[in-house]
Structure formats: C-alpha cells, structure tokens
Specification:
Length: 137
C-alpha cells in the first residue's frame, strides 16, 4: 500500500511516497498488519534556483533537483519458508546553478525482514536516506 503527499509552490514542488508491504494470502485474504511499514518508495523535488534575468540567461540549470527510487531484491530469510528483501535506495541530486556533471548519487542498502515483529524495519531505511529532503517529516 502506498501513501503519498505532494507540495507545490512558485518555481518548484515535490512528491513523496511511502510503502507498507502487506502479505497476501490465498482466497483474497491478507495479513492484519504490514510485514514491513514506512518504507521510502519514491520521491522527487524541484526547487527554483534562478531569480534574476541574468541567472536565467547564464545558468546551466535553474532548479535544484532531487529524485529517489527504491529497488527490492528477494533473498532467503532466517525464518523457514519466508523471504526477506534487500532494499536499495538510489537518490540523485542535481544542484541548482551547476552543470549536470555536478549531479551526485547516493545509494543505501538495508535488509528488510518480513517475519512478523519486524514491521518497523522500514524505519532503518527511512533513517538512512535523505528522501529528497522532505520538509513534512
């Protein structure tokens, strides 16, 4: 399940998505609680960086841009008949007023346990990544 929010303002805006992963069971049933909750799923943010006519004419890039996305890979769990996820967060940051070669990428990887009692593992990833520098956290 995804929860998201958006913000918009003159010259920019952003959106953020968190995921809660719920185990699906046979017969259209599902677990009562999320296996893993509060996992950063994706984000994007753009902040205006040019304010004068001169900046607009001479800047290689008139916004500061952030983009992040989650990649999941299944791995065997310590619990029988279960799988865990290796969650890898990739986020790029292109600073305003800078050429594209100034773009940086941050990659963080954590293991998310899916056995009951580990729903809070999503916070491990959330605490480790900038998540497009949201102001709503």
């Amino acid at each position: 399940m995804l929860s998201q929010w958006h913000e918009a303002y003159s010259g920019g805006g952003g959106s953020w998505q968190y995921a809660d992963f719920v185990e699906l069971k046979p017969g259209s049933k599902h677990a009562e609680e999320a296996s893993v909750a509060g996992v950063p799923f994706s984000c994007g943010k753009s902040i205006r960086a040019c304010f004068s006519e001169q900046e607009y004419q001479h800047s290689p890039h008139c916004s500061e841009d952030f983009d992040g996305v989650l990649h999941l890979r299944f791995v065997p769990s310590d619990s029988p008949d279960r799988y865990d996820w290796v969650a890898t967060w990739n986020e790029t940051h292109w600073p305003g007023l800078k050429p594209k070669k100034a773009t940086t990428t941050e990659v963080k990887t954590v293991r998310l346990h899916t056995a009951m009692g580990h729903a809070g593992d999503g916070k491990l990833l959330d605490d480790a990544v900038p998540f497009c520098e949201p102001i709503n956290r």
